[in-house]
Amino acid sequence: xxxxxxxxxxxxxxxxxxxxxxxxxxxxxxxxxxxxxKENQIPKGLAYSSFNERHVLxxxxxxxxxxxxxxxxxxxxxxxxxxxxxxADDELPDTFIPRVIYGKYLEEIFNDTISNLPDHxxxxxxxxxxxxxxxxxxxxxxKLKSGSEIFADKIVLAIGNFLPDNxxxxxxxxxxxxxxxQNPWNRKAVEGLKDNDNVLIIGTGLTxxxxxISLTDIGFKGKIYSVSTNGYFPLSHKKRKxxxxxxxxxxPPYEISKLYSLFRKHIKIVLSKGITGEAVVDAVRPKTQxxxxxxxxxxxxxxxxxxxxxxGVARHRLPKNIFLQxxxxxxxxxxxxxxxxxxxxxxxxxxxxxTIKEKKSLNIKELIVSRVINCTGPKTDISKIDQPLISxxxxxxxxxxxxxxxxxxxxxxxTIIHGDNTLSTxxxxxxxxxxxxxxxxxxxxxxxxxxxxxxxxxxxxxxxxKNANA
Length: 470
Prior knowledge:
Shape: globular
Order of helices and strands: EHEHHEEEEEEEHEHHHHHHEEEEHEEHH
Low-confidence stretches: none
Distance between the termini: 14 Å
Radius of gyration: 23 Å
Oligomer: single chain
Mean pLDDT: 94
Number of helices: 13
Largest sheet: 7 strands, mixed
CATH superfamily of the largest domain: FAD/NAD(P)-binding domain
CATH topology of the largest domain: FAD/NAD(P)-binding domain
């Protein structure tokens, strides 16, 4: 009996689905693919299953093709749909499309792939939760919550982001309250409020903006407070000519102090030309992974401590219309951005008392709200993640945190490094779990390249091993 090589992918969001699609596209040999997914809809995942049509992409349509080898694939797909002719054709590549539309795009590409599989490839989609993995010379298995097992030659962890961590406060008992929403993507977080209620959002980034949009869209009339340590607010995308002069001076070896000086120099240059400083960040984006991989551990720590938040503000921006909507809410006093540290959150009767130590004045500010929504970003330290699969793999030493504790320790190509410092030949990862290794590992322009590269690597390893053992 001929044994067909198999690959199990855990996670059916963008990364898992894109890897599967690339495996189907690239493999010229017999292959069995198993996709294990439980919570979010394949292939939309959490990111593109938004319940609000005004939640838009933060990357323009021209850069959102699922296929790096076909950069116009997404915009051509939009052009082919009569219902999307509302988008001006000449402006389409620079348009920020609703995430629900992008989710439909992914869904169509995925379904077409599954419906038109070549004869030598089979795909099995399993609606279950992976809770453990065993690796051995005799075979590798993924254990499911239902009690079943899936056997595979190679296994890919494409499980996406985890819930935010609970911020440190004096008494953590509040986090058990029905007034607290740890999951900012749960639509219940913005429902059931009264007009005279106030809301606190912890975090001042893009997820906060999504929640503000959802609150205002359902007619919420109360005040929204948003707090983060620095109180930084996302900037707006602007149309401008690309600025690339910095690339002429950007060469290894990379050191954070020299990079910082170089950035300051070129920001002054662009400002003198009437161009905003984000142009410098955009210019460097194609080289960000190369720079991050070259930095010393000491420099990475310095970046995280002193530059990370400023980088995030310049790197993760808002479409202009959304930015103006937020500024309007701020000017009307309906949205207040606070820079400071949370001291205490406690439930008092039917309300919540929040105490904040303001950053600039060091004054104590007290707020009375009816709800608290956590928008601080996903937890990244896998040693502290209470999720069966991650916990079990960590306990076994099959995965360990990277040095920055931003994900899993691995090679840039996704090869996982086990706790004994050996390179896995069977377990791989992709997407946000590689953030500590690559830094830029959360947006489609990078993730689609990962999917294509990982698929090619897996196929190569499967069939080189098979030929060697023949």
